[in-house]
Design goal:
With 302 residues, the protein is of the alpha/beta class. 29% of the residues lie in helices and 17% in strands. It has one domain: HUPs (Rossmann fold, 3-Layer(aba) Sandwich), CATH 3.40.50. The two termini are 29 Å apart.
Length: 302
Amino acid sequence: MSTSAPVRAATEPPYRGRFAPSPTGPLHFGSLVTALAGFLQARTQGGQWHLRIDDIDPPREQPGAADAIRFALTRCHLHWDGEVIHQRHKQDQHRAALERLMAAGLAYRCTCSRRMVGASAYPGTCRSANRPAQGRFSVRVCVGAATVSLVDPIQGPHLWQLDREGGDFVVWRVENLPAYHLAAVVDDAEAGITEVVRGADLLDSAPRQRHLQSLLGLPIATYLHLPVAVDGAGQKLSKQALAPDIAGQAPVQTLLQALTWLGQEPPVSLQRALPREVIEWAIAHWAQSRIPRLRQRVVPPS
C-alpha cells in the first residue's frame, strides 16, 4: 500500500464511501474515474464502498441505465459493499427532513420560477410571504449570512458566502420531489458516509450541503473533488453530451487509462493483466497525492 494513502485516526469512524450515479445513461469515462478513485480511497483505508442509484428525477432517467451501470462496474472489478441503494426508496426520509426545516422556520414555500430568478442570487422574494400549501411551489432553505469554508485535498481551500452565491436554495422541487442537495445529505448521513469523492463540477454544491448538514444536525462528511474529465473542446464528458459507453471498451484498457488520468502511473506490464489484477495493483499503489491539482483535465483519445 502506498505510504501516501490517508491514515484515519483511531477516534475517527470507519471509512465509508459511495458512488452515486444518476440512471440517465450508461457509465462513461468521467464517471468511471470517479467510481475508481472512490473505490480506491475506501479500499486503501480498509473501508466500505457503496453504490447508490440517484433515481429521484424520473423524467431524465433512461430505462435499463441502472442495470448498465452495475454491469460496467462489475466488468471493471469495482465491487460494492452491501445492497445497491435506490434514492427513490428514501423519499419518506427526505420529506421528514424537509418537515423539520419547515417546522423550525428554516425553510419556506416559494412560487418564483427559474425565469423570474434568473442567474442572480435569489433575493428572498417569498421568504416572508407565507405562501399557502396549495398550487405549485418549491421549498427554499434560508442561508442567512452563513459562511462556509472547505479545504479540499485536490482543489485546495475555498470560502463561500451563501447569500451572495445563489442565496436561499431549493430543497424541494416544484414537481413534489426532493432536490439534489437535500436528498444527498440525508442519504449520506443514513449510510454513514465519511467521505464524498466526486467531480470538481460539484465543488460549489459542498457549501450548500454543509449548510444543510449543520441545520439538520447531521454528521459532516469530508469531500474530495477530482478534476472533471473533458474532451478536446473543453466540454465535460456526460451522458447528456453522449459520452461513449465504457461497456463497449476493453475493461483493462479503460482501467489503465483511468489510473493514468488520475496520475497513478500503472506499469506497461498490466496491459496483459486481468481486471482483477489491475485493481489489486491499484489498491497496493494508490496515492491520493498524485491526483493532478486541476479543476478539469482533457481525456486523450483512446
